[in-house]
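Let's study today's protein:

:::
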Amino acid sequence: MVFEHKSEREFYRVPKLEGAPPPVHFVDVFSTAEKGVPNPLTGSMFLLEYAATAEPAPHYDYDESGVVIKGTLVIEDEKGNKATLQEGDTFFIHRGSDITFSSPKFAIAFKVASRTKIEH
């Protein structure tokens, strides 16, 4: 297999993440196909509906980078560093971080991480 693709309609289908707080939707879109490779890569869609309070993400034991496609995403780390990201803004989360996400309305982001695909 040389490459994979998704239509825009498929790309924006972001289901509710089971076990996550109510406003969190998440799905892995693409991932390294081979199991056990030393440097896997996974691309994901992340949708955060309005969140009055920050929703904690799992502890990051991998690096992750992303771009906000629509809406406004507020990211804060365990040291109090905070950024309000708009459409087109990018972010990088270093492994070892504890992050919270919130949004005054909603946010959609495409993220890539050095991890294997999450099986649902």
Observations:
- Strands lie at 24-31, 42-56, 64-71, 73-77, 82-85, 90-93, 99-113.
- The chain has one domain: 8-113.
- Residues 14 and 72 are 17 Å apart (CA to CA).
- The chain has one helix and seven strands.
